[in-house]
Write a structure and sequence with these properties.
This protein has about 160 residues and is of the alpha+beta class. The protein folds into two domains: about 60 residues, no CATH class; about 80 residues, Glutaredoxin (3-Layer(aba) Sandwich). Helices cover about 50% and strands about 10% of the residues. It is built from seven helices and four strands. Strands 2-1-3-4 form a four-stranded mixed beta sheet, with helices on one face. α2 runs antiparallel to α3 and α3 crosses α4. The protein starts with a helix and ends with a helix.
Length: about 160
């Protein structure tokens, strides 16, 4: 048994082998592997005996279940109207300029990925972004530079 098969079997043992188990198993794979490979989705379908298209449909419906490899730090910028009105575009431009990549890309060193996402639930403190599980609010280009600089220093990039 390969490592992904072992992981999915363990997740199915915990969450069950029913249709309702798809999402928690997908979340467990992403937590461990950082993304969902085609092989992992096919293996989930096999393990809980449902069509692979059902697993893929669930995986692609949710924005936090990535189907491609991401950087160590996934930056998700909220794209709601509130964040847009409060300066989301300037925040996004600052991130792209600092990391020298475009929206949807990952830095060559695999440390950072920039994505837009739907509401993060922080409209009252817009604009907002998430770096992995850490929320940052009331962003300005200056604040974004400080935040990203601290992540880059952690990794010896500055």
């Amino acid at each position: 048994m390969n490592p992904i098969q072992t992981l999915i079997k363990e997740l199915a043992d915990v969450h069950g082998r029913r249709r309702e188990s798809i999402l928690p198993i997908l979340q467990g794979v992403v937590e461990q592997e950082k993304y969902l490979s085609e092989d992992s989705m096919v293996e989930i379908a096999r393990e809980i005996d449902i069509p692979a298209s059902d697993v893929y449909g669930t995986a692609t419906f949710y924005s936090f279940l990535e189907a491609k490899k991401m950087g160590k730090y996934v930056i998700r910028v909220c794209k709601t109207i509130t964040c847009s009105m409060k300066g989301k575009n300037q925040v996004l431009l600052t991130i792209q300029e600092m990391l020298k990549i475009k929206l949807g890309d990952t830095t060559p060193d695999k440390r950072f990925t920039i994505l837009e996402t739907n509401c993060l639930g922080w409209c009252h403190k817009a604009p907002a972004m998430l770096i992995n599980d850490e929320v940052y609010t009331e962003l300005t280009p200056e604040k974004v530079r400080e935040i990203l600089s601290s992540y880059m220093k952690k990794n010896g990039q500055i």
